[in-house]
Amino acid sequence: MQLTRSLCFLCLFCLVLNGCQGIIPEAPEENTLLDGPVEGLSNSERKRFLNGDFAFNAEVFSSANGLGPLFVATSCGSCHAGDGKGHPFTTLTRFGQSAPGVNPFIGKGGPQLQNRAVPGYEPEQLPDGVAFSRFTPPANTGLGFLEALTDAQILANADPDDSDGDGISGVPNYIAPPPYFQPGATHAAVDGKYIGRFGKKAAAIDLLHQTVNAYNQDIGVTTTFEPVDPHTHLPTDPEVSDQVVHDLVFYLQTLKEPIPRASSDADVVKGKALFSSIGCASCHIQEWTTPETNIKALSNKKFYPYTDLLLHDMGPGLDDGYTEGSAETYEWRTPPLWGLGLSPNSQGGNYFLLHDGRAKSIEEAILLHGGEGQFSKTQFELLVKEDKEAILKFLKSL
Amino acid sequence: MKSIFITLIFFNLSLAVQAQIDSTLLRRSTVDTTMAKGMNMDAVYNRPFLQMGKMPVSLGGYVEADYQYMGEDGVTDGHTFRIPRMTLFVASTIHRKIKFLSELELEEGGKEISIEFAAMDFSFHPLVNLRGGVVMNPIGAFNQNHDGPKWEFADRPIAMTQMLPATWSNVGFGIYGKQYVNDWAFGYETYVTNGFDDSIISNTENKTFLPASKASKKRFDESSNGQPLVTGKFAIRHNMVGEIGLSYMGGIFNKFQEDGLILDDKRLLDVLAVDVNTTLPFSKTFIVGEWAWVMIDVPETYSQTYGNKQRGGFIDVVQPVLSQPMLGFSNAVLNIACRLEYVDWNTGKFQETGGNISEHLWAIVPALSFRPTAQTVIRANYRYMQQTDLLGNPPTLISGIQLGVSSYF
Predict the structure, then answer these.
(1) Window A:14-73, CB contacts with B under 8 Å
(2) Searching chain A, which residue's CA lies closest to the CA of residue B301?
(3) Which of A288, A280, A313 shows the shortest CA–CA distance to A170?
(4) Which of the four pLDDT bands, split at 50, 70 and 90, describes residue B32?
C-alpha cells in the first residue's frame, strides 16, 4: 500500500515536471515588445548582445560604483524602460547654447543639467536667464539600422533651399567630432565636421558618441572616452571599462526594429495612405535600406523608421531658444515613428511625445507641428473624423 | 608540519568522541515547531535540540532544499535545484539563569556564512532578562521566527526579506521579559544595536532596500555612524484567541560625519510592524500574517527611484486536511495552504507629473504540505506574481512551481 502511494506520488511529480511549460506565464506577443535582438546574429554576437543588455538594463550605479555625484538617472534602463521612450521623471535639461556653434557652458556645468545628487551633494541649478530645453528620452529600437546608413543616403533627402518648392527643406546637423570618433565608410567630413543623427537635435554622430555622453552627462560616470567628471570638471579614472562600453554600443546597434501591428487592417492601410497624401511622409520617410556593414545581420536590410534624420524648422511653438551643433533653435531632427504605438508601455500607460513630452497624445503631437510641418498639420485638421482616426490608428500600429 | 600535527590531534579526538557516542545518551528535546503555541519571541529557543548525556551543550539545526521551475514573461531558466540554507544551532545552559544560544547559517551551499544569533541571556526576573551579543532585532515576527521547517512555503515572504531585511541581526544589548496570567501572556523586548548604513539608499537594487546593509559585515565590528539602532516590540497573547505584536525599529542610518567633519544631515529610518497569528478553534485553521511600514529620510535632491515610504506584508492561511497515520508516520499531517503577499517599494507621487509611483508586486502562492512529523515538512507551492516597475508599465508576470523539503535535525 505504501509502495503504491509512493509510486503515485512519483508519477504525479513526473506529470507536473512534464507539464512545466504550461505553468510559466505566456510570453507577450513579439510585436508588443521593443527589446530583443535583430534576427541573424551569430552565437558569439548574441553573447555580446546579452553582455550589453546587462550593462544597459541591469547595471545600476550607486556612489559605490561611480554614480554622480551629480546625475540624472542611476542606470540606462531607468530612462528607457523596455528600450522604449522615457518618462518625464527622467527628462533631461540641456542649456547654454542659443545659436548654432559651440555651447559656451561646456566645462561650466553644461550642456546638461545634473538635477540630482547623491546625499551630501547639491545638484546643479540652471544659471539665471540661460537658454534651455527639456528632452524626453527616446526609444532605443532599431538604432543600429540608422547608424548603418551612409551620410550620402541622408544627404540625398536634404533640400536646404527648398529647391523642389514643397515647403520642406531638411538640413543635416554638422557636429565637431569628439577626439575618440573614428570615421567609417559611412561618414563624410565637411569642414572637419560630421553629420549627427542621434538625439533630439541630432547632436550625436554615432552610438559610441551617444553612449559615452549619456554615461557621463546622465549618470555622472566617466569612461576613457569621456574622462571628465561633470561635478569636479577634472579627469578621473574610468568608472566603466572600454569592454562594457563597446558591448553596450553593440547592444544598441543590434536591438531589433519595432514590428508593426495590424498592418493589414483596413483603417491602418487607409491611414498609411492618408499619412503620405497630407505630406507627413516628406519628413517621416518610411523606407530605407542599409548598405553593407560590419554586422552582417544589419547589412543590406530594408527597414521602416519613418524619419529622414534631418533637421526641420518646426515653428515658433516648439522653439525653446536652445540648440546644439549647427542647428537653429527652432530646428528639430525628425524623430523616427517606429514603435510609436508602444510608447505607453514604457511611459507608464501614457503618451509623452515631442522633444519634451508636452504632447499627451499622438493627435496633440500632430497639432503642435509648425514651421515645415504646418502644411501637414493643417491638412490633418481638415480631414473628417474617420480619416483622422485612420491616421492615428496607423501611427499606433507602428 | 604544525598543521599536520594539529589535524592528527583533531582526527584522533573526533574518533574518540565518536567512540563515546551511545545513542541512548542522546536526549532530544522535542517541541512543537509549528508556531501554534508559544509567543513569537520564544522562537529562538522553541527549537528541537539534541543533548548528549550531561554535557552542557545541546545541538540542533535545520536544512532546506528545493526544486523550482519558474518563468518570467514566457522565459524560463529551466529546472533549478537549490539549497537555500543550512543552519546549525548550539545552545548551552551555563547556569540555571544564564543561557547561551547561537545560530550559524550557511546560505546557498556555503556561499554566504553568517552568525544570525549568538547571544547570552541573563535571567534576573521573568520580566527582566538581559540579552547581549548578536541578536535578531524583534521587528515584526518573521525575523525571529524564520526557521524553514515552520513554514509551508519554499520561499520566505518577500516583504519580510526584501523590504524588511529578515534575517536581520546585529550586535547589541537589550532586555526582554514575559508575564503569564491565566490564558494571557504578554512580552516585550527592546534592544540597542548597530544598524543600517548608507547602502539602503545607495545600492544596485535601484530602490530603497534595507537588506543592502546586510552585505556589510563591518556592522558586527563597529557602528557605521556611531548611532544606535533602537528596536522594540510589545506582544500580547491569549491562548484561545491568538497573538498580536507591535514593533518599532529606527535610528539614524547614514554616515553623517567622519573624523569630526559633517558630511550630510542626519537621516532617520523608522520601521513599524504589526504581526498576528491565530488558530481558529472550530477548523484548526492556522493564520499568520505581518504588515510593515518603512519611512526613510531620502534627500529631495536625490533620485525618486529611492522611495521614502514603503509598505508590505503577507498572510498565510494553513488548513490541516488530514491528520492521521500516513505512509508509516504516526502523527502525519497533510495541509493545504495559501499565501498572499504584497510589497509597495515606493509609496508616493512623481514630482514631475503628480502621477503615482508604482514599483510594487503582489503574489498568490497556493501550497500543499505534508508533515510526517511536526519538525519536517515536504511542500509543493505554485507561485503567481505580478511585478510592476517604477513608472507603472505593464507588469512582469512570474509564475512556476516549487517543491521542497525542510527539517530540523
Answers:
(1) 16-17, 20, 23-28, 59-60, 62-65, 67, 71, 73
(2) A116
(3) A313
(4) very low
How far is residue A360's CA from residue A212's CA, in Å, rounded to a whole number?
30
What residues of B are in contact with residue A350 (Cβ under 8 Å)? Answer: 355
| Count of the separate structural domains present in chain A | 1
**Chain A neighbors of B74, CB-CB under 8 A:** 24-28
| Domain boundaries, position B99 | 24-408
Give the per-residue pLDDT at B49: 81
E strand or H helix at A8, and its extent?
A: helix A2-18
The mean pLDDT of B68-79, rounded to a whole number, is 94
This complex has an ipTM of 0.90
Residue A295 lies in a domain: yes
Task: Give the one of B69, B72, B389 whose C-beta lies nearest to A81's C-beta.
Answer: B389
Residues spanned by the domain of A104: 41-397
In a domain, A27, yes or no: no
Res. A220: pLDDT tops 90: yes
Instruction: Note the pLDDT tens digit of each residue in B17-26.
Output: 333 444 444 4
The total number of structural domains in chain B stands at 1
A118 contacts B302? CB cut-off 8 A: yes
Contacts with B240 (C-beta within 8 Å, 6 or more apart), sequence order: B183, B281
Nearby residues of B208 by Cβ (< 8 Å), 6 or more positions away: B200, B201, B294, B296, B298, B306, B307, B308, B310, B345, B346
Asked if residue B355 belongs to a domain, the reply is yes
Q: Which of B199, B202, B268 to mutate to test the interface with A (most CBs of A within 10 A)?
A: B202
Residue A18 included in any domain:
no
Answer whether residue B332 is part of any domain.
yes
Min CA distance, A16 vs chain B (Å)?
A: 9
Task: Work out the average pLDDT over B320-345.
Answer: 96
Mean pLDDT of A89-117: 94
Angle at A135 between CA A89 and CA B396, to 5 degrees: 40
pLDDT over threshold 90, residue A308: yes
Predicted confidence (pLDDT) at residue A93 exceeds the cutoff of 60: yes
Q: Which residues of B are less than 8 Å from A220 in CB distance?
A: none
CA atoms within 13 A on the CB side of A1: 3
> Is residue B153 one of the residues assigned to a domain?
yes
Mean pLDDT across chain A, nearest whole number?
A: 94
Confirm whether A164 is domain-assigned.
Answer: yes
All residues of chain B having their beta carbon less than 8 Å from the beta carbon of residue A16 are 401, 403
Which candidate from A25, A63, A89 shows the least CB-CB separation from B304? A89
